[in-house]
Amino acid sequence: MRLQESGEMYLETVFVLSKQLPTVRAIDICEYRGVSKPSVSRAVGILKNGGYLICDENGSLTLTELGLEVAEKIYERHTVLTEYLVSLGVKADIAAEDACKIEHVISEATFEAIKKHIK
After folding, report:
1. Which domain does 63 fall in, by range?
2. Handedness of CA 6, 16, 64, 99 (dihedral sign)
3. I need a surface site. Which of 30, 94, 101, 105 has the fewest CB within 10 A?
4. What is d(CA 49, CA 100) in angstroms, rounded to the nearest whole number?
5. What are phi and psi of 63, to 5 degrees?
6. Tell me, what's the pLDDT at 118?
7. Residue 56: which residues within 8 A CB-CB, separation 6 or more?
8. Which residue blocks in 5-64 are alpha helix, DSSP H?
9. Contact indicator for 93, 82 with CB cutoff of 8 Å
10. CATH number for the domain including 111?
């Protein structure tokens, strides 16, 4: 199953929140992303069916091995691209916003070249 940008964003959000909170629930995603509960419920259902997320009986969301792999990849792209854009002189908030758009469409070859260039 090929994830769309929104699916990748939800996985990245669960990943980020799992670093900050003892458990991640749908309401945490709503608050963090500023989206509605029905939107999160729909996304969680799709991600569960795709094997990216597990939801336990208490509503706690956990990334599967596959979900974690995707989330870490997107998060790395976000942080590296943000740093790169800031190093070019882009304001941090604009760099983060632009990186969020780029991270989903950039090729692996281009991303690896940027990482190599930064080092």
Report:
1. 5-69
2. positive
3. 105
4. 25
5. -75, 140
6. 86
7. 62
8. 5-20, 26-33, 37-49
9. no
10. 1.10.60.10
* Count of structural domains, the chain: 2
pLDDT, tens digit, for every residue of 50-105? Answer: 999 999 999 999 999 999 999 999 999 999 999 999 999 999 999 999 999 999 89
Q: Return the bridge partners of 54, or none.
A: 62
Give, as one character, the DSSP assignment of residue 107. Answer: -
Q: 3-state class of 3 per DSSP?
A: coil
Give the position of tokens 């792999």: 69
Q: Identify the CA nearest to 103 among candidates 93, 92, 114, 88.
A: 114
Residue with tokens 């190093």: 87
Q: Tell me the CATH number at 10.
A: 1.10.10.10
For residue 52, with 0-12 CB atoms within 10 Å meaning exposed, 13-18 middle and 19 or more buried, which class applies? buried
Residues 77 and 50 in one domain: no
Give 23's pLDDT tier (boundaries 50, 70, 90): very high
